[in-house]
Structure formats: C-alpha cells, structure tokens
Automatic annotation (TrEMBL):
Species of origin: Nannocystis exedens
Residues annotated to bind spermidine: 61, 85, 154-157
Entry keywords, A to Z: Polyamine biosynthesis, Spermidine biosynthesis, Transferase
The EC number(s) this enzyme carries: 2.5.1.16
Descriptive protein name: Polyamine aminopropyltransferase
Pfam family, one: Spermine_synt_N
Protein family according to the UniProt entry: Belongs to the spermidine/spermine synthase family.
Domain PABS intervals: 1-234
Catalytic activity: S-adenosyl 3-(methylsulfanyl)propylamine + putrescine = S-methyl-5'-thioadenosine + spermidine + H(+)
Keyword Transferase on entry: yes
Protein function: Catalyzes the irreversible transfer of a propylamine group from the amino donor S-adenosylmethioninamine (decarboxy-AdoMet) to putrescine (1,4-diaminobutane) to yield spermidine.
Amino acid sequence: MPWLYEHYHDLSAIGLHVTDKVHEEQSPFQRIEVYDTRGHGRLLMLDGMVMLTELDEFVYHELISHIPLCIHRDPRRVLVVGGGDGGTVREVLRHPGVERVVLCEIDERVTRVCQQWIPAVAGRLDDPRVELVFADAVEYVRNHPGSFDAILVDSSEPIGPAAGLFGGAFFADLRRALRPGGIVSAQTESPFYAADTVRGVFKELRGVFAGVHAYYGCIPTYPSGCWTFALAGDDLRLTDLDATRLAAVAGRYVGPSLGLGAFALPEFVRRLVEGD
C-alpha cells in the first residue's frame, strides 16, 4: 500500500508514503519492519510504531548524545540503553575522548536488521570501541555499579520491552552505575500527547538525582513533532557545557548556535516537567 499510518493511542495518526517493504520479521520481542519511503528515506518500525526515518533521525540522536557529552567534563565510558538502531552510538563516537561505548539492547534482531538495511544509522557498530550487549538493560545496569561517565537511555515508548526503563527503581540503578560526576540523558516522550508520562518521569528522576533538567527538539515523524529529553546527575551544571567541544561535534541539529538554547522550554513544557 502506498501510505503507511502510525496511530498513536487513538489520538492522532502520522502517514508516510512508502514505496516498498524491504524487510519484516517477528523477533522474540516485537515485530520489526523496514520500508523505503518517498521523501523520508528508510523507515524503521517496531510493533507498528515509527522508530526512525533517515530524513529526521539525526535530530533525536544528536540531542540525546551531544548535549550530555558536552556538559560532562571528560566522558570516556558511555552506556547506551536500548538504541539498537545504532544512531546514538554513531553520534557518541564523534567524541574523540570516548574510549568505550556499551550498547545494551534487549533485541539483537533490531540491531542486525538495521546493520543490514539502514547502514547510514547502524554503520558504526563495528567500531573497536563498541561493545554490543544483547540483554535486559535493567539487569545490566544493576550489575555494573560505578562503571560509566554517561548513560544515554535511548528507549522506545514505555510499553513492552521498554516498560521497565521509566521508573524510579531503574533510575536509582542508573545513579549507582555512574562514576563520580556522571550524567544521564533519556528520551521522555511527547509533551502534547504523553503529558502524564513526561510529568511522571521527571517526578521520578527528581526523587533520585540532585539535578534534573529538561530539553526538547523537533522531530517531524514522531507524534506531535515535539519531543522532550531529560538530563540528570548529582553534580550537574548546565553552564559546564563546553562550546568548543560542541562546535567540534556539531551536526545538522546540535551545534554552537543551539547549545543551551535546547533548555529554553515553552511554558507548557516547563510546567509539565516541574509538576506545576
């Protein structure tokens, strides 16, 4: 069929013009589909939800990686939770000081499918600095205290395999998995369509970390086109953002002209994340 629609909780639908289905399979965890589209490049869907398109994936992957890594003073060991498509790892590897990146993804088939069919996103997963771990991230994080400078929680919607990645117990384990001065970033859903999720996640984060901040960006193929992210740590100062390093890794969305501007929230988003 020429048009493919993602229906979001009976609230909205996004339609994309597809030209070919290049892959489909049912993994032990979810249905994985890859399409060619008109105008959006390759499209990855998991259980009927759009995970990325080649047109706009850079926005999400740059925001979840470059903002925290340019605020941390010296990120050398990085854990990516989820992110089986490889896009976040690709951006992390642009930071020359990074020595080791662990990708912990529960569904190996997502990664292997993306390596085969979406290499523009997954093509850096064979870098020698990258370790692929196909396991439950909740258990992995719990078993690796004091191991990482930065943890980037690149999860899907808080249902199915990702349901355990949005609660206070997991956030407490993230805190224990950080080295001194460590920092966490996470995607935290649409402020328009998932307001309760956004509010709840930030409340849970504030119960664990001393410093919690929200930032956001525009991703056309995600529900509502507006997406929020969280930044958390116990020794977190936004003014530590290193403009020189940010300029060196500048991509198509995150760069010196954005910088701390990503934290300039619309009033309704500010109220959500602060629990007003």
